[in-house]
Each structure stands twice: as structure tokens, then as C-alpha cells.
Amino acid sequence: MSLRIVKTAFAVASLFPLFACSAHWSYQGATSPEHWGELSQEFQTCQSGKNQSPIDIDNIVTAHLTPFSNHYHESPALLINNGHTLQANFINNLNTIELAGIVSHLQQFHFHAPSEHTLHGKHAPLEMHLVHTSAKGDITVVAVLFETGAANRELAALWQHLPTRGGSTALTAQHIDMAALLPRDKTYWRFSGSLTTPPCSEGVTWLVMKQPLTLSPQQLDAFKSALGHANNRPTQQLYGRLVVE
């Protein structure tokens, strides 16, 4: 690993995670999701918003959605345990998706266990959010659900450097094959929503992949052990929104 990459990694580590906020919030007790809107004025959308995420995926409308294309590469990443999730930030910005002619760059990806989105009321063991932004600042999140089964090779590469306490970071020793973290079947459900953590900003385009990936029970246990608590926001009301496929 070159000295330049290591120096860049430490520079990235010194930055606040994407969408970081000053007020303390958590998934338990007095600062849990049902109280987020009360913790800070900048969090009020968590309580008052009508386009909040996650949601239960049900009553789906067929609309023959345009496929998206991804241009993902093997990339070194900085894995951060920020106390809320395990988040991988990129040292380069080469991974993109294209949807309806708009290119968005992958900024980071992170995990929730159990899943935040549910399918007909049922949680998956793990959910990954790949967070992209366009040149205009619009956010598109690709969500991938994981079922327990065969071990996941790319997660194994990440988990080799698992930061096991909040505030710790680890530079991956090998490049992560980002394309392998998307299912082969690129069909998805789409809806308009929000960030699932404070400040719960709305106007986020969600693409929830229909085909799940797998991870082993041991890999799931390692994630849960590193984080020490569940980190899923409960599903939110639709308020007339449509989920389309």
C-alpha cells in the first residue's frame, strides 16, 4: 500500500461522516428513533416529515422502471465504526451509477441489522445502503438486503479489518470489488423517501434491490458484536406514496 494512499486515508478519517449531525442520537432509550424529532431543531423532519424512510414494501405498482447501470470498480475503502453503524468511505470517487441519464457518485456504504426496510412486514437479517450523490447534490440510495446462507467474499474482506469500538477506523488492506456487492439481477423497487438517520432529510430516491445477497451466520454475528446493538429505524408511514417496480 503506497504512502500516498495511507496519508489520504488519514485525511478522510479526520472528516465527519456523511450527513453527520451535532446533537446526540441513538437507537435506544431517550435518544431513540421515536425521540429524534425532539432532540434538535435540525431533526424536526424526523417527526414531521411525510416522506420518511424506511418503509414496508407492499402494495407495489407495476410501472416498468428504467434499469440503472453501475460502473463500480475495485476500490480501497476506510471502514469506520461510528457507533451508529459500520461505514465504508472511499479514498477515490470512481464508482458511479447512472439512472435516467443522471450520473451519481458512490460516497459511502453502511449497514443495518436487522434490515430497515421490510418486505410484506418481514425484516431481513442485514441491509446495506450505498449512498450516491449527483453533481446537483441529489441523493440516491441503493439498498441491498442480505439473507443468511453462504459466506460473502467481499464482506469477508471488509470484516478482516472490523473496527470493534465506536470512533475507530481501519483501512482495508485490499481493494473491495464493489460490483460484487450488487446482485446480478438489477431489478428494484423505487420510492421517494428520506435519510434513515438524523436529520432525516427528504427528497432521497430509494432503489431497493429485489434480489438479496447472502452472508454467513458468523459474518452477521461479527457485525452485531462490533456494533453491540440493533441499528434499524422502524418503518414509517407511506402517506400516499407509491412503491413502483
Fold and architecture overview:
- The structure is a single chain.
- By secondary structure, the chain is an alpha+beta fold.
- The protein has one domain: Roll (Carbonic Anhydrase II), CATH 3.10.200.
- Helix content is 15%, strand content 32%.
- Strands 2, 4, 5, 6, 7, 10, 11, 12, 14, 15 and 16 form an 11-stranded mixed β-sheet that branches.
- It starts with a helix and ends in an 18-residue tail after the last helix.
Strand segment count: 16
Which fold name is given in CATH as the topology?
Carbonic Anhydrase II
Task: Specify the number of helices.
Answer: 5
What is the domain total for the residues? 1
Taken as a percent bin, the fraction of beta residues is 25-35%
Distance between the termini: 43 Å
Round the mean pLDDT to the nearest integer and report it: 89
Keywords: Lyase, Metal-binding, Signal, Zinc
GO molecular function, one term: zinc ion binding
EC number: 4.2.1.1
Protein name: carbonic anhydrase
